[in-house]
Amino acid sequence: DAMVIQNPRYQVTQFGKPVTLSCSQTLNHNVMYWYQQKSSQAPKLLFHYYDKDFNNEADTPDNFQSRRPNTSFCFLDIRSPGLGDAAMYLCATSRDLKDLEQYFGPGTRLTVT
Amino acid sequence: GEDVEQSLFLSVREGDSSVINCTYTDSSSTYLYWYKQEPGAGLQLLTYIFSNMDMKQDQRLTVLLNKKDKHLSLRIADTQTGDSAIYFCAETDSGSARQLTFGSGTQLTVLP
Predict the structure, then answer these.
(1) Contact A104 B44 (CB under 8 A)
(2) What's the maximum distance between 2 C-alpha atoms anywhere in chain A?
C-alpha cells in the first residue's frame, strides 16, 4: 500500500558528479514537493510542482533542478553535488495547494564523497 | 521570516506522559501541525490545530495551543516504546500545506 515511494533509499555520489533522485506516488495528487533535510535540522522546501507548473523557492540553489514527466513521477536532479548537499531528500504530495496535509515518502539519504 | 523552535531531545519512561513543546514566531499562523518521523520512514501527520482553537484531543494525543505566547505542545498519554521517533512541529500562515515551516524536530526516546 505504498503511497509515496522514493528510490533509491540511499545514494552515494562523487563530488561534482550529477545525480538524480526519484519519487513516485500512487495517490494521484496534483502537488509534489521536494524537501532537503540536513542532520538535526528542519526539512527545507526546495520546490514544488502543481500539476505541470514548477515553483522554485527563492533560496533554492541553481544546482538543484526538478522534472515531472507525468502525475505520478517527480525527479530531483543535482547537477554538480557539493559536500554541503549531503542530506536526506524528502518527497511529499498533497491533493492540491489548499489541502492541509502533505504525504511524505521515506526519503533518500544522499552521501557525497 | 517565520521561525519554529523545539528542544532536540526528550526521554520518558514507558507508561508515563510525554510533553513535547514548540514555539513559533509568526503571529499570523493559521494552522499548526505535529508530524512524526520513525527511523527510516517519512513524516506522518499526527494531528493539526486551527489557530482559533486552544485544545484538540485525539485518543492518546492532546494538543495545546497558547496563541498569546505562541506556544504549542503535544502530550502523549501512556507513552509506549512504539512512540519513540522524531516529532516535528510545523506551521503555515496561509491555510495551505504548500508553505509549511518546520521546526528541527524533537527526538523522543521511550525507556522500558
Answers:
(1) yes
(2) 40
